[in-house]
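User: I'm curious whether this sequence folds into something compact or stays loose and floppy. Could you predict its structure so I can see for myself?
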Amino acid sequence: MTEPILDVRGVRKAFRDVVAVDGVSFSVQPGEVFGLLGPNGAGKTTLIRMVLDIYRPDDGDVCVFGHALGRDDLDRIGYLPEERGLYTKRRVIQVLSYLGRLKGMTRPEAVAAGEAWLERMGVPEYRDKRLSELSKGNQQKVQLMGTLINSPKLLVWDEPFSGLDPVNVSQVRELIAELRSEGTTMILSTHLMNQAEALCDRVGLIDHGRMVLCGSVDSVRQGLGPLGTSVETDAVLD
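Assistant: Here's the prediction. I'll summarize afterward.
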């Protein structure tokens, strides 16, 4: 069997008396899109932050690329946080170049990659605009491009559609589908079953910090019972 890109083993995280993640285990195979599905507050973001070494687990282990997570591994992981944040007074290409250099790219490499992503996303005219001149949705697209700029081996998306208008939602969904077809390994955190169903190979359902279901989208939907079969809109798990 192929060695997983990510292997999470029994991780637990508590903040004083609140247990945010309680003994969660799962793995992500090369080229797979794995969905972390669950209502807001279920523990998905805390789990992601442990995968990225932002939080250290109280118990359990996180392995990436076949070994324990180390600092150098973070340059091979792209992370789109739920809380967006950019330098709005800077020009788009400056921000993309900076984000690329944080991931170990040279300035010329980062500028060239930033320009290529602007072309791919159909907005090359944004190159020299200040972030403050763009709509909120287009600022989020710039942050998305910054996540992808160094061609990471593992992508982690935390609620990537939050705050986007329908046009940008459609474009981001198409991009995820393209990356999936190219064999990119991804974790997609969402509270929307229809997004998981459309984009993911397997899903882990998180509730109150525990992994309560894990498997194919169909098997998880069946495990949800009436909720999984009756919901047809974006309001799946709110």
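Summary: Residues 166-181 form the longest helix (16 residues). The beta strands are 6-15, 18-28, 33-37, 59-64, 67-68, 77-80, 154-158, 185-190, 202-207, 210-216.
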